[in-house]
Amino acid sequence: MLTLTQAAVGIYLAASGSLALSILSFALFAIGLTAATLHLGQPLKAWRFFLGLKTSWLSRELLAFTVLGAFLTVPLVRAFDLPFLSILAHPAIHLTGALTALAAVFTSVKIYESTPRVLWNARITFPRFFGAVALFTLLTLSFQSPQLAPLFSATTPGLLALDILQLKNPTLSRERTIITEKLSLIGKIRLASGVLSAAAIFLSPWLALPFLLTSILAERTLYFKAVRPLKMPGFIH
Description:
Helix content is 71%, strand content 0%. By secondary structure, it is mainly alpha-helical.
């Protein structure tokens, strides 16, 4: 859910009127949101999220992503090119959608940062979640502006290096052991696919995309599997 919704946000921010990229963004978002609903303990009661808006970051996340879904449909509706839909082309629409998208990712950060898990604190979670958004944004920009490919290529290993630096924190000694020993294969997939995406961007952004998705999926696997075992975050004050 986190990988796909953040990929959708990054693509949406930079799609710049491309119908193909807008469809991709909406498709990834829809799959991610479906996964988010299904992993709830009682998915049929998800509609009651508004009851916890004052105290729960999970409720706020559900609201933010629900609103964001409406904005992601705007480029698809505009493709019909009907006169009365011209208002949807107003820059304020996309700006509001972009702010909603960033706010939605922020609520995801707060859900995990609000738990007592060291691996999920703000210093680790914030750069990882927004770093993923940034990578997908740069990748999408490369479709229209190939000259930005080197920026994506340089940013990707930078974030990979940040993962390693974060794990050097003495408070993460247990998590570091799990990642480097029990989960070493996933760690290698994370690094290898990240490097491959940085190289593939010079051939085609479409080629880099699956490598980037694989890299972020591997990173999120480590993010959840290496954490100290507690209950999943729910309605957190």
